[in-house]
What we know:
Number of domains: 2
Oligomer: single chain
CATH class of the largest domain: Mainly Beta
Amino acid sequence: MRWIVAMLALILSLAPASAAGARAATVALGAKASPWTDFQEGRVRLLMIEPAMDDQIIRGGIGIRLMPGYKTYWRNPGDSGLPPAFDFSDSRGAQDFNVEFPMPSVFDDGGGGQAWGYKTDVLLPFTARKTGTGPVSIVLKLDFAVCGTTCIPLSANLKLEGGLPAGLEAIEAIARAESRVPKRLAPQDFAAQVRLDSRIPGENPGFVLEIRHPAAPEDFAVFTESRGYLLVKPPVLLSPGHYRVELKGQLPPGADKTFGPVRLTFGSKKEPREGMLHLDEAGVTQ
């Protein structure tokens, strides 16, 4: 089950990485919000920044507000849980939606494993391409899960057409969420910061990484996405800004027993980074 969830998360994570440039090109005229959809465990809504008339990029956010004691999941939930799923297919005047995720946190999944997600309110920023010259209607079917003492799958049908004026506060909230999305590193920059130090052979292989990042130990975290399952053990500080991280692998079933490209997210919430790690090319599969 773990490798299935990990594979789905990786597929979702490999969406086009052009959102940063799209954000830079957008000129905000104002913002609108859909009504909140309420649950016992929290509430969700859509936000959208209105671009200038000649701007073809739409910026927005999916707001998830949690009741105290509840958590929700990142695009890879870790050892258990469900990643959120987004269906924008009923939207009009916009297409090519790309949802991004701020740096998550690590928390106990209640079964002795790690879960990856958000323990407080989160805004997931998105971009879309405007089509035509008519009005934009954003329709989202959002499936997600929240966990308190038990985990509960939730579903919301959100619609932003016209919407309520949200003001400068919404624009600033979307900008903050965008700034917390991990920075995609160029291959040469990633290689300068992340190094495969050693391999531990076996049916469930392990890998030791050395990672350089200025975050303090209490703020530093590492997350993986691959076809297989990779447990991330707690990072060990070797020296200021220099960490040792061990990954314990579980290859997926089937003929192609490879991890595929591993998307590695690391750093802190203030300085999140990510890049692609190629464990298979290093000859680490069985």
